[in-house]
# Entry
Amino acid sequence: MTKYNHNMTRRKFLKMAATGTALGVAGRPSFSFAKEEYDLVVTSGDPAAATKKALEALGGISRFVKKGQRVALKPNMSFARTPDFGATTHPLVVAAVAQECIQAGANRVLILDHTLHRAELCLERSGIREACKNISGAHVQAFQERKFFKEINIPQGKVLNRVEVIQEVLECDLLINIPVAKSHSATGVSLGLKGLMGLIWDRESFHSRININQALSDLATVIKPQLTIIDATRALTSGGPGGPGEVKKPNLIIAGTDPVAVDSYGVTIVPWYGQNFKGRQVEHLLIAHQRGLGKIDTDQLKIYRG
Amino acid sequence: MRIIVQAISLFLFSLFLFFATYKLPDWFPADIYLRLDPLLSLNAIFAAREIIGRSLWALVTVVATLFIGRFFCAYVCPMGVSIDFLDPLLFKRKKQKSLTIESSLRKTKYFLLIVFIMAAITGLSLAFLMDPIALLTRFYTFFLYPLAITLINLFLDLMRPLFKGLGWVSLSHLHIFQPVFYMSAITLLIFGGIIALNRIAPRFWCRYLCPLGAMLSLISPLGIFKRKVSEECNECMKCQKNCPMGAIPEDPTKTRLRECFQCRTCVKVCPQNAITFPASLSIGGEYSKIDLSRRGFIYSVAGGLGVGFLATQTPFTPLQGKHDLIRPPGAIPETEFLRTCIRCGECMKSCLTNTLQPCLWESGFSGLWTPKMDLRLAPCDQNCNVCGKVCPTQAIRSVSLEEKNHAKVGTAILLKEKCLVWAQNKICLICDEICPYNAIVFRPVEGFRRPFVIASKCNGCGFCEQRCPVLGESAIVVVPDGEIRLKEGSYVTEAKKLQLEFKADPGDDKFILEESGFKVESGKKEEKKPQPQKPKGFLQ
# Structure
């Protein structure tokens, strides 16, 4: 695992650098306070470093994670594919977030998904289990049994009135969504909002019975991740969501608290299927925006770039 | 001592079977018990008319039996162990009744052996019906293994609140995949029947019915260890009453050598300590002859040939070339496959996704219990090649992962009347989403982007068929058309020759905006429907 070792040293270096800056400039509180004004944070670099930078720019993970909390991370690890396919979240991005949560005092970090392929294979091939195995307090878990899901009501649901959600997600104190940026042959793109579909039991009905774009916004009214971090270190720009397809390397991490805004920015970073789009052109994002779930016009957002 | 050896043997049998699953290391012979079985090996070699490498392992058993005698039944055979261990649990042994028809019943196993061998000579693999190792492997696969998983999951469910309370995160979410099989009830009934026969006489199965026992008993009198009774014998007949095989005739100093499997129960019970098993080279006497009547012999030869004839002279045989079943990847050509497969069920046990299921009558009598892929139930995982690795007769070839993924099992076809996109203009993409090879592409037709199968990219893995959200038969089904069944040689080479490509590349989704690839007849009076310019999910 030389790959990870390399990143570990880089991570250490960055940590030292960050601490140095914090001490040297003005001390941490005011530093993080200043960053809170941003609607959106976009950082670049290699996966772990860019992730840490993004969290730092948001004001540090401690803005979200309080001591003793139970945190759920929702990466995309739905496919038994290696990271280079771009169909799953980069393991080092997931590990970096998990690590930060634990360091901020989280009691437990559960990294979860309802996988499409066989669970063991997804955990194995996505590399996420391997990347997180040394983080004590972090557990990688795939849910493929209905008994681990619990039904909830969607009071504002238009096409979806009830939905079965992974119980752990309902019971946790904090949900962080860590989707990978990819194309999707039904919804155009699969980013944060689409990624939430990985937390429910019956996904098939979204395709067969009800309008998926409407259903996704219904879902977004009840499952509200406090933080969304898009892993755009790679972007599967065609052939999504499962791949194989064209994988581009924007080397970006996009993070923010407004799920629509984060996704909307994510739409603009690469051409999808060879064509440039805006957030407004993605039906499920537009519907979510119109229902007041978040901002969609990225030019009106205050964006930190680093 | 014998009980310990037996327990170890049963444990090993279970252990080998337990490990027959994804990721089985290449060097681990999970099918070793089946390979060591000379009846199954002979059956496969005769029926396939070919020397099968793995089947030659059975020579180990043959040589050992020639040398030692019929020890296999008493010490190794896991069916024998099951019978011995279950016997005292289930039956209260009353005074042993002497069966009046004893001696004629004993012949049954030889007749059965002849029937199976004759059937094999006609090309019908039939020994699986009664071979103890195949029977037990099936019983474990179809009944015991799913039951064990159910019990483990039940236990986990019961303990879940405790695990949760203790904060054991992984354990509190642990659930073991529950395999299910067709025909598990039949398998249970057969095994139950074998055990129930012990009520009539101990080791009833081994004494009278087991064709493997018959085969070993034919060569056992050459073994060097033979029962010997000294002068001390006072003819108390204790040994005769206790012999589980009824191998001691009226004269207790004599032994039916073919029946004696050297369990040494007689040594233990003899009050005079008159019995020993010394090494001796003599081929012992009148009790080592088999008295198969000529008539019985002829009947069983005729029976075997007759069954073989009946099973092969049916429309199923010519239809083998047009069969409707999806066989596991790496399965040799259908006719050879049916002849070589010994129906042990090991491939179905090892199948990671549970797609391999036993056939009932889909390909007639000669296809009973052969593996088929039930792709509506589960797909074939592209990272797994275990079924070939564990096949004791290589009816499914053991090949590398790359080769296995090129061993195309069929081709997906779209049933447009059922497909939600074609028939109802719904936004469904599940087949495309799940396809590992991008063999499904969306092209604009009549104002909607609709799925198409690129046959040259489909290896029949069945993810699409399994996931299709319509009820009942899937709107996209894998048919055997285009399957690659090779007896030898490389699947990769063959696939290349056929210009197939099962590879992770973007497919023509990449070009989808530039050209539709689908020509709709335009002009005339037809209303021209606008072709979508954007991929699905994007607005204009």
Summary: The first strand of chain B starts at residue 228 and ends at 229. The interface with chain A takes residues 157, 167, 169-170, 173, 175, 177, 352-353, 381, 383, 420, 426-430, 432-438, 442, 467, 469-470, 503-507, 509-510, 512-514, 534-540 of chain B (CB under 8 Å). Residues 505-529 of chain B have pLDDT under 50 and may be disordered.
